[in-house]
Amino acid sequence: MKRYSRRTFLTGLGMALSCPAWMPRRAHAARDVTVRVGYQQYGTLVVLKHSGLLERALAPRGMHVQWSEFIAGPQLLQALAADAIDIGETGNAPPVMAQAAWPDGLACIGCSAPAPHGEGVLVPAGSPIQTPADLKGRRIALNRGSNVHYLLLVLLQRAGIAWTDIHPVYLPPAAGRAAFETGRVDAWAIWDPYLSAALVDTQGRLLVDAQGVTTNRQFLIASRPFADRNPGDFFTLLAQVRQDCVQWAADHADTLTTDIAAGTGLSRPVITRALAQLALQPAPLDPAVVTEQQDIAATLFHAHLIPTVPDVRAIVRGA
């Protein structure tokens, strides 16, 4: 079976890293002075960013945090492969795809509890589509290689529909919403906060979410070089900060909603709904979670979305 190289991985995802801030570092100290963290508009890291807890925890060590926002998990993991960031958070499918392409480059250092209501498939309010089986022959917008790619794949498989029986339209979230609102697609597979935004602000109807299909966990991923350079107590500290963030979010819910709304340009009702679906509570990287990810890997391989089935256990580290 062909093994994709790191260069192939970067080229295949099709992302141009032209921003000077994303240029790889040419030399590394024994411990990183600046930790470069990639986050999305959905996930535990966006809450951690607003809390300031990580900065306060690292300050006594003389370490700083540099935050970079990404539109989706595949783009974030490409930046990780390019040494543009050190740590990032994505859903459950992108790390499997990245590991299959870059088997020696990742370290999985943490995960969250399940959040199955944080992703789903939307259809227009007046659509005749009532079940996943009705998606046959339809045009469906989705972000290639993301969590919802896997979600849609499994939904179709359970309905007895081949991937070739639909017309996938690969679009990032903003373009996906535009296509959905203008009727250029029949359905849209998407995650929060874009899912909540469409439900609150448009005539979208939730056809199905991930409940009973996939856990939609968030995974904290580090580049293996970064993990190897830093001592284990750094990841212990990171795990503690993530745990502390759960209580911080509960104590500052109103401020957090306001700040994320301001940062994303989305309304408070949208952010309130999205945060309600988010599982902030960290979960252990135990054998059950590894089995979940290994099953995802097998599914993606048999669907010809990855070239080989990676051993998920090989990248898991304590956090």
Question: What are the key terms here?
Answer:
D-Maltodextrin-Binding Protein, domain 2; ATPase-coupled transmembrane transporter activity; globular; 13 helices; ABC_SsuA_sub-bd; signal; five-stranded mixed sheet; 2 domains; 319 residues
Question: Can you describe what's shown?
Answer:
With 319 residues, this protein is α/β, with parallel strands linked by helices. It folds into two domains: 210 residues, D-Maltodextrin-Binding Protein, domain 2 (3-Layer(aba) Sandwich), CATH 3.40.190; 93 residues, 3-Layer(aba) Sandwich (D-Maltodextrin-Binding Protein, domain 2). The chain contains 13 helices and eleven strands. The strands form two sheets. A six-stranded mixed sheet has the order 2-1-3-10-4-11, with helices on both faces. Helix 1 packs antiparallel against helix 4, helix 2 packs across helix 10 and helix 11 packs across helix 12. The chain is globular.
Layout of SSEs?
Blueprint: H1 6-13, E1 34-39, H2 44-51, H3 53-58, E2 64-69, H4 73-81, E3 87-90, H5 93-101, E4 106-112, E5 119-124, E6 139-142, H6 147-158, E7 167-170, H7 173-181, E8 187-191, H8 194-201, E9 204-209, E10 219-223, H9 224-229, H10 232-251, H11 253-264, H12 268-277, E11 282-283, H13 287-302
Parallel strand pairs: 1-2, 1-3, 6-7, 6-8
Antiparallel strand pairs: 3-10, 4-10, 4-11, 5-8, 5-9
Helix pairs in contact: 1-4, 2-10, 4-5, 8-12, 11-12
